[in-house]
Design a protein that fits this description.
By secondary structure, the chain is an alpha/beta fold. It contains 8 helices and 9 strands. It has a single domain, classed as Spore Coat Polysaccharide Biosynthesis Protein SpsA, Chain A (Alpha-Beta Complex). The strands form 2 sheets. A 7-stranded mixed β-sheet has the order 3-2-1-4-7-5-8, with helices on both faces. A two-stranded parallel sheet has the order 6-9. Helix 5 packs parallel to helix 8. The radius of gyration is 17 Å and the shape is globular.
């Protein structure tokens, strides 16, 4: 362990991106990196191993196969919590999450328990997204916020970007959540973690980011992920204490 913060980067067929993204991360902020590779057929795991051998700040967690983003992050959380890291990040490998925002996260986490990189607060936005993608993303956050605030008395969850995946947690947050009971993946995973933290009373802060569409490799977004998120949100509202 070289730093008090670690950035978790799940990968599946990210050979084209992984070297550049990790190099930019460790140049930009005082953080370690954990690459969580789901046995990528394109050799991403082998590239990650080579980087880890050359730099003590870089670590690799190999998993047997593709099991979904949520399970990858849960495995990464458990790995990081077994070490004395104070701050644990979620971050994509495809440059949709820009490393240049890491210092802003580290500054914001001083006065919060969770920091969310938000596309939908002042100063945030997206680049190279079509209208349909924007509608799905904005609509997904609105739908989730509406369902999770439903009931009597109504909730007060005001997070604008509930589906975003660029986050920083204090370790105490993840230690307080029942990670073993989290079943969601994709969009729903991000919604569920934030809602669980909100229900526990943790301080959640959104900071603006610009989200860029990937330039290399193939997007992992799918119709199945969107449908799963819509179906899971009412379940999250009912089952999360």
């Amino acid at each position: 362990m070289n730093n008090e913060a670690i950035v978790l980067i799940p990968t599946y067929n990210e050979r084209e991106n992984i070297t550049s993204i990790v190099q930019q991360v460790v140049r930009t902020a005082p953080v370690d990196v954990l690459i969580i590779d789901d046995n990528s057929p394109d050799g991403t795991g082998q590239v990650a191993d080579a980087m880890a051998e050359a730099d003590r700040r870089i670590h690799v967690l190999h998993r047997e196969g593709k099991q979904g983003l949520g399970k990858a992050y849960l495995a990464g959380f458990r790995w990081a919590l077994a070490k004395p890291y104070k701050y644990i990040f979620e971050m994509d490998a495809d440059f949709s999450h820009q490393p240049r925002y890491l210092p802003a996260f580290l500054e914001a986490i001083r006065s919060a328990d969770i920091v969310l990189g938000s596309r939908y607060v002042d100063g945030g936005g997206t680049v190279n997204w079509g209208i349909l993608r924007q509608i799905i993303s904005r609509g997904g956050s609105l739908y989730a916020r509406t369902i999770l605030n439903a009931g009597f008395p109504p909730g007060k969850l005001q997070i604008r970007d509930l589906t975003g995946g660029f986050k920083c947690f204090r370790r105490e947050v993840l230690e307080a959540l029942d990670l073993d009971s989290v079943q969601s993946t994709g969009y729903a995973f991000q919604i569920e973690l934030t809602y669980r933290a909100y229900r526990k009373g943790f301080i959640i802060k959104e900071i603006p980011i610009i989200f860029y569409e990937r330039e290399a490799g193939r997007s992992k977004m799918s119709h199945k992920i969107v449908v799963e998120a819509m179906a899971r949100v009412p379940e999250i509202r009912i089952k999360v204490p």
